[in-house]
Amino acid sequence: MTTLIPEKATIAELAEGLRSRRFSAVELTGHYLNEIKRDTNNAFITVNETASTQARAADELLASGQAGPLAGIPVAIKDVLATRGLKTTAGSKMLAEYVPSYTATAVQRLLDTGMVLLGKTNCDEFAMGSSNENSAFGPVKNPYDDTRVSGGSSGGSAVAVASGLAPVALGTDTGGSVRLPASFCGVVGLKPTYGRISRYGLIAMASSLDHVGIFSRTAADAALLLNAMAGHDLHDATSGREPVPSYADMISRELPKLRIGVPREYLQDANPLVEKLLQDAQEVYGRNSEIEFVDVSIPRLPYALSVYYICASSEVSANLARYDGLRYGFHAEIEGSLEDTYRHNRSALGPEVRRRIMLGTFALSSGYYDAYYHKAMQVRQLLRDDFIAAFKKADVLLCPASPAPAFKIGEKISDPLTMYLSDMYMTAANLVGIPAVAFPTGLVDGLPVGLQFMAPAWSEATLLALVHRFETASR
Q1: Is the confidence at residue 1, as pLDDT, over 50?
Q2: CATH number for 217
Q3: Domain membership flag for residue 440
Q4: 289 assigned to active site
Q5: Which are the contacts of 53, defined by CB distance < 8 A and separation ≥ 6?
Q6: Structural domain of residue 87, as residue ranges?
Q7: Which of 74, 121, 136, 195 places its Cα 20 to 30 Å from the Cα of 374?
Q8: What would the pLDDT profile of 204-224 be if each residue is shown by its tens digit?
Q9: Is residue 386 part of a domain?
Q10: Which of 24, 130, 153, 314 is the catalytic position?
Q11: Strand positions, DSSP E, 13-135
């Protein structure tokens, strides 16, 4: 029966198969679970043993005729989103045995539609990394070349979708952690507006920067998941109250006249072949007489990466203080002082997490707060002003998602500064809280490289519609 399941299928293809009864949700789930067993790229940390039970419930929902478009569709979840009764490790030894008593709002809203949870995907420890080499459960390998990184921190989710281990997946994006692996693995990666999707149940890294995001094969699939998850949540005071439009309907509508800005600062240090992909994309969109390309500037963009790592590390220092082994996480039974106990308990944290905690603690410390954190927050506001000015000249911005394709595993892990530069095109969207989407546009030396669109807050429909147009034109 699984031979009837299209390889690397979209939600629409799978939904049609379920409703025509060519296969059941149980059979569909079994197909993906078998694919996960054969995975050699280390995409999953934990497989959901109750997936078949959820699939049987989905079959009953489908039989009732009351099912929505996501009923019976399997989904993978990044292992930083809480799932009741299923391990949520954040890719860390600190939480290796943690089983939550509740489920994150974003995940629960998908389950409420009848989706089936396949399992939890591998990620950089506490979502800190650009390559998915920082996981306590080993690196995630790129499906196009297993000697290269998948991108981080949501590499497992990107690989799951790219390799056909799941039709769609959730990730999180704090400084590019959905869009960079999407670019490296050749899939769509959406980071919505800050507050568009509730963060309740997300293991916090940097609370003012964290976003729940989506991996999919198409813009249409991302739109369906966004519709299911978006909206205010009483459990999350930062979740937005803006009305939720029907993204799934809007992406195929005729686009209004649009000005697409290409910020010149995003072209610095880009591989010439990546620039060629950008030019090719401009040619595709330029065939539409309603689209105009304009030159724009984000003058303070060169400061975004430095501002991001000060702000993010400072919030990491505060958020991870709770993992002391006394109240939460790994606890070492040792003889000695309280200081010895703390030292041994915190040894469960990996080197990148410890590095960011120390950076953040320093930036927040007495005598340095004004020079680092306070100054970074001032520049963050100036960066917001730059984007506001850019969006007066352009409706959306188009730029590379990464300056180059995926790099070799081990190539940058010993040089943190070089690794941080992987996020150079990513962090600004998080700092200002605007939506951004990475989408596949071609190959460079046989490896995927994506472009990304950014738009003013609450403009996800426009971003997904533009990606949908590119997908249609590229078929």
Answers
A1: no
A2: 3.90.1300.10
A3: no
A4: no
A5: none
A6: 2-250
A7: 195
A8: 999 999 999 999 999 999 999
A9: no
A10: 153
A11: 44-47, 74-78, 116-121
